[in-house]
């Protein structure tokens, strides 16, 4: 993603996500990840994976709105 449209998180949300990553690795892989490793993992997800999910959400929203707009034509009076 371009820097101006990069996903931005509040400090609290980022800390929550880092905690979730640490808990995931501990519970699912029995590995303890530190703050640095979890932060790097989160940054990778944000920079490399999140744009695909974001773009899918944009497309789904576009499709939904386009379908609803088409429905408006059904209320025309002839």
UniProtKB/TrEMBL annotation:
InterPro entries in the record: DUF2164 (IPR018680)
Protein name: DUF2164 domain-containing protein
A family per Pfam: DUF2164
Domain of life: Bacteria
């Amino acid at each position: 993603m371009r820097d101006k449209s990069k996903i931005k998180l509040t400090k609290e949300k980022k800390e929550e996500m880092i905690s979730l990553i640490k808990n995931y690795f501990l519970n699912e892989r029995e590995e303890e990840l530190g703050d640095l490793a979890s932060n790097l993992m989160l940054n990778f997800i944000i920079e490399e994976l999140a744009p695909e999910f974001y773009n899918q959400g944009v497309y789904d929203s576009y499709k939904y709105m386009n379908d609803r707009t088409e429905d408006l034509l059904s209320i025309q009076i002839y």
